[in-house]
Every structure is written in structure tokens, then in C-alpha cells.
Specification:
Blueprint: E1 4-6, E2 11-13, H1 18-21, H2 41-52, H3 72-84, H4 98-111, H5 113-118, E3 120-124, E4 128-133, E5 148-153, E6 176-177, E7 180-182, H6 190-205, E8 214-219, H7 230-239, E9 244-249, E10 254-255, E11 266-273, E12 275-284, E13 288-289, H8 298-310, H9 320-330, H10 335-341, H11 344-355, H12 359-363, E14 368-376, E15 382-383, E16 386-395, H13 401-412, E17 417-425, H14 436-449, E18 453-459, E19 472-477, E20 482-483, H15 485-490, E21 497-499, H16 500-518
Parallel strand pairs: 5-8, 5-9, 9-19, 10-20, 11-18
Antiparallel strand pairs: 1-2, 3-4, 4-8, 6-7, 7-21, 10-11, 12-16, 12-17, 13-15, 14-16
């Protein structure tokens, strides 16, 4: 999963990681709302009825008992081998390590012979891989079910220089230690690649043949934006006339011990992701000697421009997706809290006011505004003629890049300040939380992980999924790993590792999902 990319310098900046950002912390409130309702018996009755209707979920057709357990130790060893192949995405200017990516492609073909015998493989953009597992439906049934796509990426972020010695096990060792596989990419995203291939290898080895086409789409530059990897793959599929029913990528997972008051894992199925845009504000003023200043300098003009956008943030909204998320969690809460969360028609303003107190919860409710760089002036006694500021926005799906710029111009309302788009991408379309893909992901998760909570969510940063929006009806983001609070700090950080249990469960999950949707 990539961080923020400065497309001019090619530098990747790390971002807070995904599970908490997606809306998990919508319930991180020091003191939950206290609502006093009395005197209106009819109102209480309506609320009680609505409260009683919360909860419920899809029933699984493929249960864990139907599947043979996976050999976690064997999977761990293969993941360790892939981690030692250091396919690092450093910057847009850096040439990919051809040997490392070729090594990964060769390793996959050798480690998963049955899968490679069953599927066709193409190389795109020199390093990315497309696998096609041909469906068996023919005749009248041919084309009755559109193909589905499983997305993952082969590249990893660098290890920050100077932090190598802080790792418990070397960052590219792929060491198996203390029940986990250690190394860069274990969680993001080679663990997912390996779990997928394990499931295909078993299915193909048993003679399973999917009824519909299945694509496995492994990009090589997700950490740099994915343009040459996933972007090129999507163009190749589009040229072939491929239209996908839905895709599934990274971007969320099962949160364990993260949502206050809920002990069960919370399976967050992301139905959309935010976009982003970087705006450059340039202010111009009269130069000269500081002893005879004009009423304004470029610095003061620019300062007011920055304050104009930061003092007027986008309003927070409890949209349908946030409401669905809160309702999904409500069934696991004490009655008093459930009463609040299932009656947002009344308590919504109070809930929203509480949520805005935390930066992470607020980010899921609106487009965010973040001034990050400001420059102006050369010497203390010289009036600067020009000053610039960089402001980064993370765009909620209800907004768009051009509208963000236009709003900034209106708020600044000063002809001495120009506002330019310095790079951006639109938010993803909103995928259905009731469509085939969502239902299948939810049912499979319940089948494999048992008594859990299911909730739709929003991914705050970018994934490769955005490249497939034009050729897929729906795009979902969900990795079948259980994440704890400590895990969130390790993605792109020191001591990245994945539990062997997670790998075995994920392989079983992918197998069950393929049997459910293409059996």
C-alpha cells in the first residue's frame, strides 16, 4: 500500500496506515454521547423498534469445515523466499530492479506449478503480471457471469536509511521467527500475493476449474502510484474488451482490539477510496527594503491565503456509508450506545460533533485540508516579491479535484494569489455494499473467521484499485488478515511481519471465495 507520492521529486512519503483510517476510529470517543429522552412515549417506541432491527448478516455457503487446513509453515517458507527478492520501489526516477522482479516471476512459476499449468500469464510493463484462469462456461452459459479480478502488488517500499539495525530480524531476511514471517512486504503486500497463489495452487491441483474467468493482477509499482503497473494492466484488459464484475484489492481487513467496546474482529470491507490533490499557492507583493514596507508583503498575503482554507474546512457529513458503518457496529454495543447509533436521524448532529474531535475519525467524514510546505523570502531586510505554499487535500468521494481548487480560489478571494494544481487524482467511484462482490466477501469472511462484525468502510489513501474503475462494475478493498494495533505501525515501518496463522487463514479465505463465486 503506497504512501503519498510527490510526482515532481518521485519521493514516497509514508502515511498513517489503513485500518484505523478507514473509519475504525469513528468510535474512538473518550466519552460516548449521553442522550436524555423522556416524556415522549411514542418517540421512545419508534427508537426501540429501530434499535431492535439492527444486526444480521449473510449466511456462508462454503464453511471452514469444508476446507482442508493449509500448511502454515510451508506457506511461511515460500513467503520468506519472496521477501528476499528485494523488489523495492524507490522513486519515479529510479529504474526498477529487473533482476528482483524477474526473480519473483520465476519463483512464482516454480513454487506454484499447478497454478501455472492452469492459467495463462502475460508480462506487462516489463515487470507486472496478468494471470488469466479461463472459465469453463460455454454455449448458452458463456458470458453469463462476468470475470472477477484479484489485485495485489509485487513491489515494496524502502527501509529507511539508518533504521536497519532497529529491526529484530533483518528487513529482507524473510526470517520465520516467533510465529511470524519477518521482512519488508510481509504485510504490504507479498503476504497477499502468496496467499492468493497458495489457494490457486490447491484448487488447480485438485482439478477445480472456475465457471467464470478469474484474473490475478499483480502490479510492480503500486508504491509509486501504479501507473506503469496496474495502469498498464488495465489498459491491456480494456484493449481486449475485458469487463470485470468486481475486483478485490488491499485497503482494509479485520480489526482486532482496535474498536473500543468491541472484542470481536471487525471486518471492514472498503467500498471506496479517497482521492488527493496538491495545490500550490503563489502570492506576489511589492519588493524593496524592509525599512519602508508596503501594507502587505508576499509573505503576509500568502499567510492569509493559507488561513483562508484552513479556517474554513470542508463540512463533516454522516453520509449513507458512514451511517451503514455505525449501524453495523451498533449490534455489538450496550443498549444505551446502540440506541444512539441506530437512531442517527435524531442523534446524528451530536454524534458528528463528537467524531470531529479526533483527526482520524474526522478524515473519514470530509475532504481534508493540510498545509505542508511554505517558502518565502531570502534575507531579513529584503521584502519578498513572491512566496509559495503547498496545501495537500485528501478528497472525499463526494468531491473532486477541480472543485477543490475552485473552492480554494473563492475562499482566498485575492487576485494577488494564484492557485495551481500541482498533481492529483480523483476519488474512486462508490461501489455497491449490496452487490454480488460485497455479499460474497462478507459471507466468505464469516465462513472462515466465524463470529465477527461486518461493516462497509472508506480507504483514506490510494491503492491499485483506482486503475480498474473503468473496467470493473465494483472495486472492493479487503485483505483477509487480522490486524492488531501494533500491526498498523509496522506497515511501511520497522519490524514489518505477518503471523503464520494469518497466511494460512488468508489462503483458506481466498479458496472459499473462489469456490463461492466461480464454482
Amino acid at each position: 500500500m503506497r504512501g503519498k507520492l510527490d510526482r515532481r521529486s518521485g519521493t514516497v512519503y509514508k502515511e498513517p496506515q489503513f485500518l484505523g483510517q478507514i473509519g475504525v476510529r469513528l468510535l474512538v470517543m473518550k466519552n460516548f454521547l449521553i442522550v436524555v429522552i423522556g416524556g415522549l412515549a411514542a418517540l421512545v417506541l419508534v427508537m426501540g423498534v429501530r434499535t431492535g432491527l439492527s444486526g444480521g448478516g449473510p449466511e456462508a455457503a462454503v464453511t471452514r469445515a469444508d476446507l482442508v487446513a493449509y500448511d502454515g509453515a510451508a506457506i511461511a517458507a515460500r513467503l520468506g523466499t519472496s521477501i528476499r527478492l528485494q523488489a523495492v520501489s524507490k522513486s519515479l526516477e529510479a529504474t526498477p530492479d529487473a533482476q528482483a522482479f524477474a526473480g519473483i516471476a520465476q519463483f512464482l512459476s516454480e513454487a506454484y506449478p499447478a497454478a501455472h499449468a492452469a492459467m495463462e500469464r502475460d508480462v506487462v510493463g516489463e515487470y507486472s503480471l496478468i494471470y488469466k484462469w479461463q472459465g469453463t462456461d460455454t454455449g448458452a452459459n458463456a458470458g453469463a457471469q462476468k470475470p472477477i479480478g484479484f489485485i495485489a502488488h509485487l513491489d515494496v517500499v524502502p527501509v529507511e536509511t539508518g533504521t536497519e539495525d532497529e529491526w529484530t530480524r533483518p528487513p529482507f531476511s524473510g526470517a520465520v521467527h516467533d510465529g511470524s514471517v519477518w521482512g519488508r512486504g510481509a504485510l504490504d503486500n507479498k503476504g497477499q500475493v502468496i496467499a492468493l497463489m497458495e489457494a490457486v495452487e490447491r484448487l488447480a491441483g485438485e482439478g477445480f476449474a472456475p465457471a467464470r474467468d478469474i484474473y490475478f493482477l499483480f502490479g510492480h509499482d503500486e508504491e509509486l502510484g501504479g501507473d506503469k503497473g496496474a495502469g498498464a494492466i488495465a489498459e491491456r484488459l480494456k484493449a481486449r474488451g475485458v469487463s470485470l464484475a468486481w475486483t478485490i484489492d488491499e485497503g482494509s481487513g479485520l480489526a482486532q482490539g482496535i474498536v473500543p467496546g468491541i472484542e470481536k474482529p471487525v471486518a471492514l470491507i472498503s467500498t471506496a477510496e479517497k482521492g488527493s490533490v496538491t495545490l500550490r499557492f503563489t502570492a506576489r507583493g511589492q519588493g524593496g527594503h524592509s525599512s519602508t514596507p508596503a501594507p502587505d508583503t508576499a509573505v503576509s498575503i500568502l499567510s492569509r491565503a493559507v488561513l483562508a482554507v484552513t479556517d474554513n474546512p470542508y463540512p463533516l457529513k454522516l453520509d449513507d456509508n458512514v451511517i451503514a458503518f455505525l449501524h453495523a457496529l451498533a449490534g455489538e454495543m450496550p443498549f444505551s450506545r446502540r440506541l444512539i447509533m441506530t437512531n442517527l436521524w435524531l442523534t446524528g448532529p451530536l454524534v458528528k460533533n463528537q467524531l470531529k474531535g479526533d483527526a482520524l475519525t474526522a478524515a473519514s467524514l470530509h475532504t481534508t485540508t493540510a498545509p505542508t510546505i511554505i517558502r518565502g523570502g531570502e534575507k531579513s531586510n529584503i521584502l519578498p516579491q513572491q512566496a509559495t505554499a503547498i496545501v495537500n487535500y485528501r478528497i472525499h468521494p463526494r468531491d473532486n479535484v477541480e472543485a477543490v481548487r475552485d473552492r480554494a480560489v473563492k475562499l482566498i478571494n485575492d487576485d494577488r494569489v494564484t492557485v495551481e494544481i500541482a498533481g492529483g487524482r480523483e476519488p474512486s467511484p462508490q461501489s455497491s455494499a449490496s452487490g454480488e462482490g460485497y455479499r460474497a466477501i462478507a459471507a466468505t469472511t464469516t465462513a472462515i473467521f466465524g463470529d465477527i462484525v461486518l461493516a462497509p468502510a472508506l480507504t483514506l489513501q490510494g491503492t491499485d484499485s483506482r486503475h480498474y474503475a473503468e473496467i470493473a462494475d465494483d472495486n472492493y478493498r479487503f485483505t483477509p488478515f487480522v490486524y492488531t494495533p501494533d500491526d498498523l505501525q509496522r506497515i511501511h515501518g520497522t519490524d514489518e511481519r505477518v503471523k503464520i496463522e494469518n497466511l494460512a487463514n488468508a489462503a483458506a479465505w481466498y479458496e472459499a471465495l473462489m469456490r463461492r463465486t466461480a464454482g
